[in-house]
Write a structure and sequence with these properties.
Order of helices and strands: HEEEEEEEEEEEEHE
Low-confidence stretches: 6-18, 20-27, 35-41
Mean pLDDT: 83
CATH topology: Porin
Distance between the termini: 83 Å
CATH architecture: Beta Barrel
Strand content: over 45%
Largest sheet: 13 strands, antiparallel
CATH class: Mainly Beta
Number of helices: 2
Helix content: 10-25%
Structural class: mainly beta
Radius of gyration: 38 Å
Shape: elongated
Length: 280
């Protein structure tokens, strides 16, 4: 009986010691941490945009006048002696695009703008209806309207404090529509003296066509609201050359054909500000 009580007491002491050790070991373990699921919203989806641009520089390259000599039937093509290209420097555009990731996006944009041209010319050929053996000098003025359609791709270079710098490029076409050109010309004494009626003013019809266009862009966007970004950027665009205007009715009656004015291309450098509104 004494042995059984001693054995039972020993078993109780062993169980108590084991329980104490287990409690101490469990106390050494780090507390269990429950982490909730984190949802990351991807930058992906459609966006719309509206932009206003101001041309800080615009140029018309290689503007030429093609004079017709009714006496010989020959053409004399020369650059305008001097020219001015400018006018309304503002442009406006709308577009729709898609954000593929945090880095890549693309859009299609349409823009409208207009401008004016003024060029002075001189030639050894007589003015329309002028006396043979005299020269001609004058001035031509014309205006144009243009609408461009570009497909653009951009790389966003990361976002810091809400600012996202980017670079981009675009390719498309621009329809340039020239209005009627007005030409005032005056006879210049050459081999023969000018007569009293050797000065004239005439109008000629403008030309319109689609021209290949490319653009290069850089800028920075700022997140002003969860779905709205303010975009400030620079854009250089180049429009291929083409016809500007034809001959006057007097030149056409004398036998002239084709176009009188032509240019080698247009270039615009613009500062642009706009809003991009996203769907995500």
């Amino acid at each position: 009986m004494i042995r059984f009580d001693a054995f039972a007491a020993a078993m109780l002491l062993t169980a108590a010691a084991a329980g104490t050790a287990g409690t101490a070991f469990a106390g050494d373990l780090p507390p269990e941490i429950n982490v909730g699921e984190v949802s990351v919203k991807e930058a992906r989806g459609f966006y719309g945009r509206a932009d206003l641009g101001y041309a800080i520089d615009s140029n018309l390259h290689g503007a030429r006048a093609r004079a017709y000599d009714a006496t010989s039937g020959d053409y004399d093509s020369e650059r305008f002696d001097s020219s001015r290209f400018g006018g309304n420097d503002f442009s406006g555009g709308l577009g729709v695009g898609y954000q593929f990731s945090d880095l890549i996006r693309a859009d299609v944009t349409g823009d409208l703008f207009r401008g004016d041209f003024s060029g002075r010319f001189s030639t050894d050929a007589p003015c329309a209806g002028g006396s043979a053996g005299t020269g001609c000098s004058g001035k031509t003025t014309a205006s144009f309207k243009a609408g461009s359609l570009l497909a653009n791709a951009y790389v966003d270079l990361g976002t810091v404090a809400g600012f996202t710098p980017y670079i981009g490029a675009g390719l498309g076409a621009t329809r340039v529509s020239w209005g009627d050109a007005r030409t005032t010309s005056s006879c210049v004494n050459s081999a023969l003296a000018c007569g009293s009626g050797d000065s004239a003013s005439a109008r000629s019809s403008g030309e319109a066509d689609w021209r290949l266009t490319y653009a290069l862009m850089a800028g920075v966007a700022y997140q002003v609201a969860p779905n709205v970004k303010l975009d400030l950027g620079y854009r250089y665009s180049h429009i291929a050359g083409g016809d500007m205007f034809g001959y006057s009715a007097a030149d056409t009656a004398a036998g002239a054909s084709g176009t009188m004015g032509r240019n080698g291309g247009m270039a615009r450098q613009e500062i642009r500000v706009g809003l991009r509104v996203s769907s995500w």
